[in-house]
Amino acid sequence: MELRRSLVTTQILDPRSGFEPTELELEVRWDPLTGHTARILPGVPLLSPGDFDLRRLAEETRPTCPFCSERIEETTPKLPPAILPEGRIRRGEAVLFPNLVPYSKYSSVSVYSPARHFLPLGELTPRLVADNLATQVEFVWNVAGHDGKAAWASVNANHMPPSGSSVFHPHLQGSVNPLPTTFQRLLAETPPERFRDYVDEERRRGSRYLGSIGSVDWLASFAPLGPAELRAFVFGIASPGQLQPDQVAELAEGISAALGLYEELGFQSFNLALYGAPQALEGYPLNLRMLCRPNVEPFYRSDATWLERLHWEAAVDISPEELAERAAGRF
Ligand SMILES: [Zn+2]
Q: Are 273 and 187 in contact (CB under 8 A)?
């Protein structure tokens, strides 16, 4: 498989060196699955590690938090009995309930733990992630039994306000819908053998392949959608509802390792998507992307510019190969 990349150079008269002619470089890469392009600008600091006091924000938001133990029973909705007679799904410390905002026909929120209002990324242990993921798997499974037409499932995360999260208390979001999102459609239209070829090619090359945890393969994305993007692939199943308990544990171990890396890189906000397709889609592997978002701080620079929002092309400062070096030994 070809991993297509193109080096672009340009010249400026640089004010930082007496207006001497200076050569600048950027690299354009094509995603091997969907063809999306990305721009790699190593050495240009686009995002800065923050020193904002997240603990203080945690204390400010705690007294009115709808997901904290004192309020969660009264303030969060319940699923209709036809989907789940108990109304909410519980696993370990995790609790799942429907979303008040209908992003999808079946939209869920699952809190890692009502008792943990503040969870720095390094404290999202494999156990906490696995239990929360397990509530989402059960949600997808229950919805599938109730409505066969809602075949497009995904599990997602907005973590901390810069990622789009409106509630500080850490949580995941599930989506089960009769229609795919744009990215679910693009991935489902990709010939299934390309997924296998991509992972095999990266394993052979080695510079972005991070390893496997059980049945889950992990890579630093060749053409990332955003900063420090990691990808995971679970071959043999297409929907999160098909994840077996051991696969949930394996996937959670990798997600927890990735979040530890993000914390070490200086970040506390991230997005994640586990893209499911209909179970009947032959050969499609369940796959995940996760990336860092800027830190919480006054007048911060957003990482979503005209490039990301309107051209669907990310510009990132950490190269996938450097990311893989920083991630070594974790997967
Ligand atoms: Zn809370």
A: no
